[in-house]
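Whether sequence alone determines local backbone shape is best considered at the level of individual chains. When preparing material for the folding task, we compiled for one chain both its residues and its backbone structure tokens. The sequence in question and its structure tokens are set out directly beneath this paragraph.
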Amino acid sequence: MKLITFAKFVLFGIDTILFKRKNPIFATMILTDKCNLLCKHCAVNNVHSEIYSYSQIRKDMHTLFAKGVRVLSLSGGEVFLWQDGGKTLHDLVKEAKEIGFPIVTVATNGTFPIDIPEADFILVSLDGGKEIHNLIRGNTFNKIINNIRASKPDKVFVFMTINRLNKAEIPEVCRIAKEEKNIKAVSFNFHTPFPGTEELTLSVSEKEQCCSVISKMIKENFPVSNLETAFKHICHNNFPKPCHQNVVMENGNLLVCNRCIQIDGLCDQCGYFLTAEFTLMFNGNLRVIFDMLRTYLKYV
């Protein structure tokens, strides 16, 4: 991250904390709900199998920028399936950069070649070692690892969603993140039980055990980008909600925080580490703020 960009983010944080502002700075933009996989923990893909238009996405980008968003994450479904009128994902990333977003990331399941040099970071889902990952996502592990190895260095973050099927896989994913030279760091989330996936939900004690393992990995210098100071809040789901600094845009519809806000009671089972980290940080939790500065300067 450029120093001037980081300085602007720090000023945004100070302004937000001092004046209790509710302006967004981070946005996830859904390009399509179409996906080439049928992952066991996912309940939001292939609902309509719709690819949103280039004109609508471009309009939504301008809307988000005008609202103050400066970190834009393009997501799906599977983003590499998006195309419209000859436009591809490359064009969308270029468009976002031309609008002025200083940081543009792409979230993918990693089954397509990771070839988006215009993006600042590529977020790739990896849900365990080969056997467990393939149990959850189908026979994709080898393809994903090969695509990561063929990608640009220092751009790839791997994301693992921890659930009852893969909770023992945290050390293995950390090992992969450390040994694969093109992976910058790993970031974890807990499974959020959207309707139809409730059986994968972790108990509080299971979450605490997982966070204890992640803390151990951090102490052993594995590349983990989560903030350890937020773990107890995440396990007990006692962080402030919703996160006004984070929004989701899907086909012209703007949601504060995450898509789970649309389902009664689901926010109380939120598993998104970044949401907890953001709300704690922007509510002035000093331990989380200092942890964020140390961690983000290291990995972002």
